Amino acid sequence: MLGGSYKWVLGSACTIAFTDLWWYYSRMHELRAHIVIDSEIRFGKPCIKGTRITVGDILQWLAAGMSEQEILEDYPELQKNHIKAALAFAAERDAMTKVIVHETVA
């Protein structure tokens, strides 16, 4: 759950909703601390700190229908925060992805 929420009204037609970004970024930073990228582990793929389990592994398990509880039972070295960290990392990486469209003119 997010912290406080604020609204500013600019003129008569423009409303900007501002949600407590400090809480969001501090939480993302806390989760990001669980992810490491080391060229010596799993070819440099982002992994859960102290394991060889990649962010991609966790995403694939979730996509295949495994519940958080099933993952935690199958991989006791993982904690709930690790799964949240993998999701946050993937969301952050997706947000940074840019699509470049190249049109050719005949």
Can you describe this structure?
- With 106 residues, the protein is an alpha+beta fold.
- It folds into two domains: 32 residues, no CATH class; 64 residues, Orthogonal Bundle (Arc Repressor Mutant, subunit A), CATH 1.10.10.10.
- Helix content is 42%, strand content 15%.
- It contains four helices and four strands.
- The strands form two sheets. It has a two-stranded antiparallel sheet. Strands 3-4 form a two-stranded antiparallel ribbon.
- A hairpin with a 3-residue loop joins strand 1 and strand 2.
- Helix 1 crosses helix 4 and helix 2 packs across helix 4.
- It is globular and about 60 Å long.
- The termini are far apart.
- The N terminus is likely disordered.
Extract low-pLDDT stretches. Answer: 1-18
Secondary-structure class? alpha+beta
User: How many extended strands?
Assistant: 4
The CATH class of the largest domain is Mainly Alpha
- Which of globular, elongated, flat, extended, rod-shaped describes the shape? globular
Helix content: 40-55%
Give the termini separation: 52 Å
Query: Overall mean pLDDT score?
Result: 80
